[in-house]
Amino acid sequence: MTGYLHERFPALRDTLERVALGSGPTPVRRLDHLPNCASVWVKDDGAYGNGGWGGNKVRKLEWLLPEVKRQRRRTILTVGGLGTNWGLATTLYAREFGLHTALALIDQPVDEHVEAQLQRLRASGADIYLTHSTTRTVVAAPYLYLRHRRPYPLPAGGSSPLGALGYVEAALELAAQIRAGAIPAPSCIVTAVGSGGTAAGLYLGLALAGLTDTRVIGIVVNDKLRLDHRSVTSLARRAARLLQRRGAILPQSHLPADRLTLLRDWLGAGYGHPTSRGARALKLAHDTEHLDLEPVYTAKAMAALLDLAASGRLPDGPTLYLHTYGPR
């Protein structure tokens, strides 16, 4: 299956496979009822996904699953929190390709959202290992690798250089929507950062799309991983090198440091811990814009957008909120 990356760099058609797991472009619309927000738009990637789950994880899997099959692995081994969206999406879409999934789950606060997700995970057919902490997950990794006979290991959130291509593709898709007049070119894109792959892919993809005046403002929602400017930039650069190794001749562009901002002010007590600002943002988005958020990622990103807008800290021009949560 070809896409915007293949159209832009035809050499990749023979060296880098993508499978279509969703239908794009995802819808964009203006959010007219948020307070203190003069020009805010949403790109609803929660609508992306043809299987039992949608959202940003699906775009990453479009590039990752063909590689798992190419290496003739039968099982994917990955990690997430107890309520992992990533683990559920991986399990549901991998089984369409005859692949099994094993999940190492790290503790996070349990609320109704996490309980519901755990039920979905248990019903999904994945092998679930409650490893509780990052340290115990690292210790358990050799055992899990041997138990599942050379599984394909994937980092949390699918945030590898290959997985990050999902949001290089999405940035090129956004550029096409701008050219078609569906949305004005945004001055910034606000999105949650849980493992770094979405932000890194956008950062690189916007540069390749020529949207050099658009900033990525990532709202860090995870304190279990290193998520800072250096680590996200490194992931974007590794994704660029992957494209070059597979034959893409990239333009002589760089990744300006000021085009990526990572903010931690809305993290609260840590990963999975709800915040009062997030709860208010979740309710406001639902009541005024019919946008369904969840407390771990998207509500905190929306709370950040609202606070930044109210304090005048957003750049001049349209703001795009990237919505990444998509239950079915």
Automatic annotation (TrEMBL):
One of its GO terms (molecular function) is D-cysteine desulfhydrase activity. It comes from Mycobacterium shinjukuense. The keyword Lipid biosynthesis does not apply. This is D-cysteine desulfhydrase. Belongs to the ACC deaminase/D-cysteine desulfhydrase family. InterPro entries: ACCD_DCysDesulf, TrpB-like_PALP, TrpB-like_PALP_sf. The lineage of its organism: Bacteria, Bacillati, Actinomycetota, Actinomycetes, Mycobacteriales. GO terms for biological process: alpha-amino acid metabolic process. Its cofactor is pyridoxal 5'-phosphate. Keywords: Pyridoxal phosphate. The keyword Lipid biosynthesis does not apply. SUPFAM superfamilies: Tryptophan synthase beta subunit-like PLP-dependent enzymes.
